[in-house]
Specification:
14 helices, globular, alpha+beta, binds ligand EPZ
């Protein structure tokens, strides 16, 4: 198990390049198997979720090379349609292979990815969308089995804009016979990125208007090379780190246009945020105001993935902040760990009330999931004294090298591993 030790009290200063987007990369890697040929993906982050997804691609018959953020996938010889339990259950997002395996193999057999610490995360919307396209899905011994004689275009209406279900519907529709129209689709930038990737491979996907996507099925796709956009959640994480430490940073490649609500919240807190062609300037030396009320929501609302980093920054703002989490049922776990460092956070149901304090103090805390773990690192940067964050393998799922990045901003960090016995 991994640990990171942070010596706090130094404002973040400097420039850091933001890695490629995890949540764009994962559905795009799954989409590569729709094509019987080569796909090159540049700026792909070296994170454990990508490495597990590569293992799945190889299990299915792909030949994959991954060097210096450049991923080459040859999916001409895909012949399997079953994702082994030990692989698929490690990562919820393996469910994203349902749509592309049905499109390519007309069959998919994936371990039922259960809930996780942030919520139950059911798959009903995925199932409804793929059944509308002509799949028959059953659950057997902890596996989801999906089969079809051939997917056909359909009208799919989402009652909730699920990101993963929207991605599965798109991946299933690309090679389906006829036209698919999705109403109530998720509008996250990662969905656009997936559509842009697929269209560059020869798919015919158009965005009609808010939440409506039209996909005209095609017979085959073509070789392509795609460059991933920078990760807006990683950029937002370091933005809240600058606010928590009253620092001044440049986030190179940060996709400002995808971060409007996050930047609005940062400005409410007193930070200056300037977008430029090459990234985001953040001056948080005077950022000490509470944003008062933040509600997470589907894009373009405030992203649930930055709710925990916001808790850290708001814990050090003057005044009270109410945060309402509307996406996942239990995404306030990190509050209890932040309280160990002196944060004043009261959680009731899907609401948290934070009372700002002058300072946090170092402590030994445990990451329980990806974004909460990152938020604890931010708290360690701002706290007086030394903080040790344990179970940092959660953080490596989405951050390529959080210590390297934060050292670029002047942070003092040590990292290591301990055996289970300690
Ligand atoms: C994606 O998860 C992201 N993961 C999550 O990021 C992100 O938090 C989430 O979208 C919301 O933006 C990836 O892209 C790999 P959803 P996903 O389907 O697709 C309910 C991170 O930290 N729901 O939009 O699983 C579900 O329970 C991760 O990078 C159903 O009820 O999110 C949840 O409450 C965490 N039935 C809500 O919708 C379904 O069939 C949002 O889920 C599907 C979802």
């Amino acid at each position: 198990m991994g640990w990171i030790e942070i010596t706090g009290g130094t404002p973040l200063h400097g420039k850091v390049r933001i890695q490629g987007s995890k949540n764009a990369a994962l559905p795009i890697l799954a989409g590569a198997i729709l094509h019987q040929g080569r796909t090159v993906i540049e700026n792909c982050p070296v994170i454990t979720d990508v490495l597990w997804t590569i293992r799945i691609l190889e299990e299915l018959g792909c030949v994959v090379r991954f060097e210096k953020n450049r991923l080459e996938i040859d999916s001409s010889k895909v012949q399997a349609c079953r994702i082994p339990g030990e692989l698929g259950s490690r990562m919820r997002s393996s469910v994203i292979f349902l749509g592309s395996l049905l499109g390519r193999m007309k069959k998919a057999w994936i371990p039922y990815p259960g809930g996780c610490t942030i919520g139950k995360r059911p798959l009903d919307l995925h199932q409804e969308a793929l059944e509308a396209l002509g799949a028959v899905i059953t659950e057997e011994d902890g596996f989801l089995r999906a089969e079809t004689s051939g997917l056909e275009g359909a009208v799919i209406r989402f009652g909730f804009p699920s990101v993963g279900a929207t991605e599965n519907a798109i991946l299933g529709a690309v090679l389906a016979k006829g036209v698919t129209t999705i109403f109530g689709a998720a509008m996250e930038p990662e969905i656009w990125e997936l559509c842009r990737f697929l269209n560059e491979k020869g798919a015919k996907i158009t965005w009609m208007k808010r939440g409506e996507i039209r996909i005209e099925g095609v017979k085959r796709l073509q070789d392509s090379r795609f460059v991933l956009t920078a990760d807006r959640i990683v950029a937002g994480t370091y933005l809240f780190g600058a606010i928590a430490t009253r620092g001044r940073v440049f986030l190179e490649d940060a996709p400002g246009p995808q971060m409007r609500e996050v930047l609005r919240t940062a400005r409410l807190m007193g930070a200056q945020a300037e977008e430029s062609k090459s990234g985001l300037w953040i001056n948080a030396e005077k950022a000490f105001r509470s944003p008062e009320f933040v509600r997470t929501a589907p894009y373009p609302g405030f992203p649930t993935d930055l709710q925990s980093p916001l808790l850290t920054a708001a814990s050090l703002a003057k005044g009270k902040t109410a945060v309402q989490e509307t996406i996942f049922e239990s995404r306030f776990q990190t509050a209890s760990q932040l309280r160990k460092m002196g944060a004043q956070i009261a959680v009731e149901g899907n609401r948290a009330l934070i009372t700002g304090t002058d300072c946090l103090h170092g402590a030994c805390v445990e990451a329980r999931e990806l974004r909460g773990g990152a938020a604890l690192i931010l708290a360690g940067l701002a706290a007086k004294g030394v903080t040790q964050v344990r179970n940092t393998e959660y953080i490596s799922r989405g951050y390529e090298d959080i210590c390297r990045d934060l050292r670029c901003l002047g942070a003092k960090l040590k990292e290591g591993f301990y055996s289970d016995s300690t």
